[in-house]
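Recap from last week: sequence in, structure out.
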Amino acid sequence: MAESIKIDRAQLLLYDAAVTRLVDIALQEDIGIGDLTTEALVPLEQQAEATIVANASGVICGLPIAQLVFRQLGELVRWETFVSDGDRVQSGQTVAAMQGSAHLLLMGERTALNFLQRMSGVATLTRQFVEAVRGTSAVILDTRKTIPGWRLLDKYATAIGGAQNHRLRLDDMILIKENHTAIAGGIAPAVQRARAYAERYQIPVVVEVQSLSELQEVLSIGGVDRILLDNFSVEQVQEAVRLTAGRLPLEVSGGITLSTVRAYAETGVQYISVGALTHSASALDLSMEIVPLR
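Predicted structure tokens:
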């Protein structure tokens, strides 16, 4: 068994009841009233073995969810994994092997692969961003731009890839964005109201700014925990770092790509949030090969 990276906090996401509900929904969506092809062609007592193989290189993620798929179908499949979530795999490498009911293996094949491919794709893209800023002080963050219903799994996958999780839900922090300040009548009244509210719930206050002048306004007001620089150029971020002079941590977001993330990291910002980790990741190509046992 390959050695796993330390992801204790991320693993807690997989124990949420919402994950089991999601797996059940996915199985019902795929199976309907039954796997008619398997029922027609395969004897109920038929046993089989299966292997999951990587058809491309990347970071594997979602093995516990793939196993959960088969547990939800029945306790008749035995698993052996050859890698752990967070390990890099190469094309042609065997990821896991199973033995058990051919009916269950065939019924769960597509659903298990769908989870594995999506989660591995997110982890792979995240690892690329994390490696791109290696050696700087910047931390890659994910966002809430996740597939509806998949929030916990997408956040788990980015953590496996090496990013830190931003807020999971709207109740994790106060994040004052452009639309909030427009409705509140400006940054100053928004921050003032947020501070009183945050003290009651003991949660951090983060403020998004659209320009250097708005940054200076927030610095003069004070009372926030972090400032988010939205759609700033690299040069503007450099100036923001100079103006802030370490008084508050800075986060940068907005259209940051693999080709630009290093330049942003080298400005000295503490955090870089990247929506593409979850809204634009390509699935990692994996397949399952099933053969009968005589």
